[in-house]
C-alpha cells in the first residue's frame, strides 16, 4: 500500500511517517506543493495525505490539478484550517475526507481504512459499528461473530440506527422506518421491536437516551489502534 | 464635582431675565410716573382755562367742585386769602395771598396740594388746587398698569427658557444612553443624525475612538486565534509522536507514564480548540444570519456529549423538546448549547443527571439545562463567564473557556444567558438561554 504524504512541517511529517510505517504503509513524503504535483505525475499512489498550507503551491491547488488530470486517488486533507467553509471548499474540489489538526493516530488510521474500503468498491453491503454488524443483503445481524436472524421490522429499525451510529433517533423517526405510508401505527410497536432486538443482540447494544430516543454506539476509535497491513 | 451645563445656563439666564425685567419695570414705572404728573399739571391748567368768567369773579366764597366721581380728585377753586368754607382739611384749602402766579406745591394743615395761581379779569388773584395724594394715586395707578404685562410675561419667559434648554439638551442624554450600550462585542458607531451641530465633533471623536478600540480588540482576538492556530501543527506532531511511542514495546511503568503524557496532550489539544472557538464566536468576520433549528442543535449537542456523560457516570437526557427556530449563525448556536451541556456534565458527580429542555413560550425559545452538581454561589455567577475562571476546589479538567464561549455566542446570537439555582430545591445549577423565535 503506497501512500503520498504531503506535509511541510518537519516535526509533524516525520511523526506521521513513523505512524504510517508502524501501520505497514509504504510512504513517500514531500514537503512542498510543487514537489507533490511532480511526484503525483511520476508515480501512482493508492492514497494521498495532503496538508493545505504548503510552500510553493497551496494544497488545494495540488488537489485541483490532480482532479483536473482525471486522477481519482483518494485524498485525505490534514489541516489546521478547519472552519466549515474551508472544509466545504476542500470537499468541493474533490477531497474524500477531512481531518483537523491536532488528531490522534487512531483516528487518522481509521479514516485511511475507510477511504481504502470505499475506493476498493467494497461498498457498504455491511453496516457495522465495530460491535454489531448488519448484512444488508441477507438481513442477518452479527454480534461478536454470532449470527442472529431478524424480522423485517427488526431489520428496518436496526438498519435505520446502524446507518448513523451515534445519532439518536426519536420514536417518530423509528416509526417512519417500520411503517409504510398510511399504515396504522400501533402505540407500543417501537418498544416491542426494540425489546426483541435487545434480546437477540444484548440489551446494551441499543441505548436509550432519555427524552430523545434510541441509538447504537458509534465505532470506537482506539487512540493507539494499529492494523497490520 | 461636575456641574450641569443645563442647570447653570438656566440659573444664569433666569438671573439675567429677572434683573433685566426688574430694571425695565423700575424705569417704566418712573417714566410713566413723571408722565402722569405732567399730564395732570396740564389738566390743572386746562381746568383753570375752562373756568367761566363768573367762576373767576370774586368773592368766590363758594367752593365749586370740578372733577370726576372721586371726591379726592376734585379740584378746588379759591381766591387767594379768602377763608375756608369746608372745615374738612382734605376737602378745602386756604390759599395765602403771598402765592405767586403759576404752578406750585403747597402744604396746608398737613395736606399737600398742587396749585395753579392766576389773575382774573378783575385783577384778583385766585388758584385752582388739587390734592397731591389724589394725583399721586392716579399716577401710580397708570404706572402700575404698565407693569402688568411684564409681571405676566416674565414667568412665562422663564418657563419657555426652561423648556428650550431641556429640549436642546435631550439629544445629549440620548447620546450618552447610546454610548452606554456600546460594549466590547458591539462597537457600533454612534449616529450623528439629530445631534446638535456643536456636539457633532464630539460624536465623531467618540466614533474614531470606538474604531481604534475595535481595531485593538480585533488585533487581540486575532492574536489569540493565530496563536492557537499556530499551536495546532506542533501539538499534532507531539501527539502523533506520543501515539507512536505507545506502539513500541514498553515496560509497564513507561506505559503508565506515557498514558499520563497522552492525557496531558489531549488536554492541550482541547484547550487550543476552545481558544479558537472563543476567538471565532467573538469575531465579527464570516457571521451568517439564517434560520437555526435550536431543537436540532440541542439534539446534536446531546449526541456529541453522550460519550463524556457516560464516562462521568452522568445520566444525560431531554425532558422537553419543542420545535424552535431562531435566527443567527448555526456555528454560534452549536458552540453555545454544546459548551453549556458539556459544562453541566463535567460538574455533575457520578450518579447525577443533566436534564435539557427546549421550550417555546410567548415568542421566546428557552433552553434550560439543569444538573445535580454543587451549583454556583450567586456571588460567583457573573465571574464564571470570564475566561479561565475556575471555582476553587473544583477538580474539573475543562479548558476554563466553556462558559466564556457560551456568553460570547449568546451575545452574537442576540440572546440572554442566566445562571440560577434549581427550581425544585435540590442542589444543582439551572442554566437558561433565552432568544426570540424567528
Summarize the structure in words:
The complex is a heterodimer of chains A (229) and B (438). Chain A has 229 residues and is of the alpha/beta class. Chain A has two domains: 118 residues, Response regulator (Rossmann fold); 90 residues, Arc Repressor Mutant, subunit A (Orthogonal Bundle), CATH 1.10.10. Helix content of chain A is 40%, strand content 20%. Chain A contains eight helices and eleven strands. In chain A, the strands form three sheets. A five-stranded parallel sheet of chain A has the order 2-1-3-4-5, sandwiched between helices. Chain A has a four-stranded antiparallel sheet with strand order 6-7-8-9, with helices on one face. A two-stranded antiparallel sheet of chain A has the order 10-11. In chain A, helix 2 runs parallel beside helix 3 and helix 6 packs across helix 8. Chain A is elongated, with a radius of gyration of 21 Å. Chain A starts with a strand and ends in a 14-residue tail after the last strand. Chain B is of the alpha+beta class. The longest helix of chain B is centred in the middle third of the chain and has 50 residues. Chain B is built from eight helices and twelve strands. In chain B, helix 4 packs antiparallel against helix 5, helix 5 runs parallel beside helix 8 and helix 7 packs antiparallel against helix 8. In chain B, the strands form three sheets. A five-stranded antiparallel sheet of chain B has the order 1-2-5-4-3. In chain B, strands 7-9-10-12-11 form a five-stranded mixed sheet, covered by helices on one side. In chain B, strands 6-8 form a two-stranded antiparallel ribbon. In chain B, strand 1 and strand 2 form a beta hairpin. Chain B is 52% helix and 17% strand. About 2% of the residues of chain B have low confidence. Chains A and B meet through helix 1 and helix 5 of A and helix 4, helix 5, helix 6 and strand 7 of B.
Amino acid at each position: 500500500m503506497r501512500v503520498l504524504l504531503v506535509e511541510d512541517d518537519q516535526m509533524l511529517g516525520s511523526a506521521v511517517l513513523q505512524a504510517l510505517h508502524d501501520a505497514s504503509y509504504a510512504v513517500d513524503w514531500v514537503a512542498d506543493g510543487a514537489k507533490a504535483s511532480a511526484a503525483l505525475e511520476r508515480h501512482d499512489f493508492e492514497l494521498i495525505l495532503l496538508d493545505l498550507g504548503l510552500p510553493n503551491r497551496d494544497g488545494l491547488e495540488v488537489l485541483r490539478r490532480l482532479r483536473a488530470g482525471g486522477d481519482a486517488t483518494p485524498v485525505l486533507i490534514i489541516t489546521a484550517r478547519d472552519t466549515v467553509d474551508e472544509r466545504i471548499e476542500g470537499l468541493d474540489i474533490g477531497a474524500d475526507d477531512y481531518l483537523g489538526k491536532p488528531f490522534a493516530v487512531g483516528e487518522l488510521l481509521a479514516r485511511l481504512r475507510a477511504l481504502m474500503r470505499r475506493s476498493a468498491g467494497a461498498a457498504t453491503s455491511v453496516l457495522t459499528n465495530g460491535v454489531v454488524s448488519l448484512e444488508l443483503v441477507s438481513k442477518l445481524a452479527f454480534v461478536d461473530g454470532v449470527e442472529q436472524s431478524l424480522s423485517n421490522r427488526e431489520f428496518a429499525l436496526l438498519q435505520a440506527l446502524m446507518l448513523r451510529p451515534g445519532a439518536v433517533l426519536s420514536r417518530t423517526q423509528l416509526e417512519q422506518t417500520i411503517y409504510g405510508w398510511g399504515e396504522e401505527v400501533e402505540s407500543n410497536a417501537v418498544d416491542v421491536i426494540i425489546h426483541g432486538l435487545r434480546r437477540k443482540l444484548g440489551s446494551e447494544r441499543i441505548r436509550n437516551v432519555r427524552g430523545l430516543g434510541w441509538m447504537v454506539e458509534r465505532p470506537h476509535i482506539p487512540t493507539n489502534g494499529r492494523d497490520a497491513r | 464635582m461636575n456641574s450641569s451645563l443645563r442647570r447653570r445656563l438656566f440659573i444664569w439666564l433666569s438671573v439675567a431675565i429677572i434683573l433685566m425685567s426688574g430694571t425695565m419695570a423700575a424705569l417704566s414705572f418712573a417714566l410713566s410716573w413723571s408722565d402722569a404728573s405732567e399730564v395732570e399739571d396740564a389738566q390743572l391748567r386746562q381746568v383753570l382755562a375752562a373756568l367761566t368768567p363768573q367762576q373767576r369773579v370774586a368773592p368766590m366764597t363758594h367752593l365749586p367742585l370740578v372733577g370726576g366721581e372721586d371726591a379726592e380728585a376734585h379740584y378746588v377753586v379759591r381766591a387767594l386769602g379768602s377763608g375756608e368754607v369746608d372745615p374738612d382739611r382734605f376737602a378745602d384749602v386756604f390759599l395765602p395771598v403771598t402765592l405767586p402766579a403759576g404752578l406750585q406745591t403747597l402744604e396746608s394743615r398737613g395736606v399737600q396740594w398742587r396749585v395753579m395761581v392766576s389773575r382774573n379779569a378783575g385783577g384778583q388773584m385766585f388758584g385752582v388746587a388739587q390734592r397731591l395724594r389724589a394725583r399721586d394715586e392716579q399716577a401710580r395707578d397708570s404706572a402700575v398698569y404698565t407693569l402688568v404685562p411684564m409681571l405676566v410675561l416674565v414667568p412665562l419667559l422663564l418657563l419657555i427658557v426652561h423648556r428650550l434648554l431641556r429640549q436642546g439638551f435631550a439629544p445629549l442624554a440620548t447620546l450618552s444612553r447610546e454610548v452606554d450600550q456600546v460594549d466590547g462585542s458591539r462597537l457600533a458607531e454612534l449616529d450623528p443624525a439629530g445631534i446638535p451641530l456643536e456636539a457633532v465633533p464630539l460624536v465623531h471623536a467618540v466614533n474614531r475612538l470606538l474604531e481604534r478600540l475595535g481595531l485593538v480588540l480585533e488585533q487581540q482576538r486575532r492574536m489569540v486565534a493565530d496563536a492557537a492556530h499556530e499551536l495546532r501543527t506542533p501539538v499534532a506532531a507531539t501527539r502523533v509522536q506520543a501515539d507512536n511511542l505507545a506502539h513500541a514495546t514498553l515496560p509497564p511503568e513507561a506505559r503508565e507514564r506515557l498514558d499520563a503524557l497522552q492525557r496531558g496532550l489531549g488536554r492541550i489539544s482541547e484547550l487550543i480548540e476552545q481558544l479558537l472557538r472563543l476567538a471565532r464566536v467573538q469575531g465579527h468576520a464570516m457571521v451568517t444570519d439564517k434560520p437555526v433549528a435550536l431543537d436540532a442543535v440541542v439534539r446534536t449537542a446531546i449526541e456529541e456529549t453522550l460519550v463524556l456523560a457516560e464516562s462521568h457516570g452522568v445520566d444525560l437526557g431531554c425532558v422537553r423538546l419543542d420545535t424552535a427556530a431562531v435566527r443567527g449563525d448555526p456555528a454560534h448556536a452549536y458552540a453555545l448549547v454544546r459548551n453549556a451541556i458539556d459544562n453541566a456534565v463535567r460538574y455533575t458527580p457520578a450518579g447525577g443527571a443533566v436534564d435539557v429542555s427546549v421550550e417555546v413560550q410567548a415568542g421566546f425559545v428557552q433552553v434550560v439545562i439543569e444538573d445535580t452538581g454543587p451549583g454556583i454561589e450567586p456571588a460567583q455567577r457573573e465571574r464564571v463567564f470570564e475566561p479561565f475562571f475556575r471555582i476553587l476546589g473544583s477538580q474539573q479538567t475543562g479548558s476554563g473557556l466553556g462558559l466564556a464561549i457560551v456568553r460570547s455566542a449568546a451575545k452574537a446570537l442576540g440572546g440572554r444567558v442566566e445562571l440560577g439555582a434549581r427550581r425544585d430545591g435540590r442542589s444543582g445549577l439551572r442554566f437558561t438561554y433565552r432568544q426570540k423565535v424567528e
